[in-house]
Design brief:
Layout: E1 5-9, E2 11-18, E3 21-27, H1 30-38, E4 42-46, H2 54-58, E5 63-66, H3 90-106, E6 110-113, H4 115-123, E7 128-129, E8 143-149, H5 154-158, E9 163-167, E10 172-173, E11 181-186, E12 191-195, E13 203-206, H6 217-227
Parallel strand pairs: 1-4, 1-5, 5-6, 6-13
Antiparallel strand pairs: 2-3, 7-10, 8-9, 8-11, 11-12, 12-13
């Protein structure tokens, strides 16, 4: 059996320096594809394309990861912009929301990481808290805090214990999107994981950064679910 091919959405940077070159770039930190590989998958990056082509692009992969990154523009959930919300990432917002909707439509296994979890929630009609205190201790530095699984959820089946996770975010899920359930909380009550509860679908979002952790349980489960669509060689 070939390894499942997992598409990872990319960061979109206006200016990135490579030696003497200073150019726009689509990229991800190496931890994302290294986590996919460590869990038994093969990784491919999905830079922005026309949103209408999202389903076509996803027809070439077996599973989808929506990566972390900048704040989701509050225009997508009908809210006024808080002064503490970051600048809009318009191209990325439209592309990733299209990828999420296409994955949901095709019942493709989907993992949202940090911003990706928030985008999943927004795609299903949910809203976000545009600023919370206490989840970013030092600008640019990942911190760790415990999260508690909600019994009976997919996440709890994968990680049944309270676990310390690497985190860096200042926004969080507010109203949960249609069909989603909360599957983990921080000790202060912040929503830390959401999922679709249907047993025959694999859709999960985590607010932390598993690509900065050694725990592969969540990603391994995504890889296993993605392998079910593969035909024997």
């Amino acid at each position: 059996m070939p390894r499942p091919l997992i598409g990872i959405s990319t960061y979109v940077e206006e200016s990135t320096r490579y030696g003497v070159w200073d150019l726009p770039a689509s990229l991800v930190p190496t931890g994302y594809y290294e986590l996919v590989q460590a869990a038994g998958g093969a990784a491919v990056l999905l830079p922005p394309d026309e949103p209408a082509r999202a389903a076509e692009v996803l027809s070439r992969v077996d599973g989808l990861v929506i990566a972390g990154g900048p704040d989701v523009d509050p225009v997508h959930y009908g809210a006024a912009r808080d002064p503490r919300t970051g600048d809009p990432a318009t191209v990325r917002d439209h592309w990733e929301l299209a990828l999420i909707n296409a994955a949901l439509e095709s019942r493709m296994p989907l993992l949202g990481i940090c911003r990706g979890m928030q985008a999943l929630n927004v795609a299903l009609g949910g809203t976000l808290h545009q600023h919370i205190d206490g989840h970013v201790e030092t600008p640019g530095i990942t911190s760790w805090h415990p999260v508690r699984p909600v019994p009976g959820t997919r996440y709890a089946a994968l990680v049944p214990e309270e676990a310390d996770v690497p985190t860096y975010h200042h926004q969080a899920v507010d109203r949960v999107g249609s069909g989603l359930v909360v599957s983990a909380h921080a000790l202060d009550g912040t929503v830390e994981a959401i999922e679709l509860p249907e047993p025959d679908r694999w859709v999960l979002g985590v607010q932390w950064h598993p690509e900065r952790d050694k725990d592969t349980r969540v990603m391994s489960s995504l890889i296993e679910a993605s392998s079910l669509t593969l035909a024997p060689v």
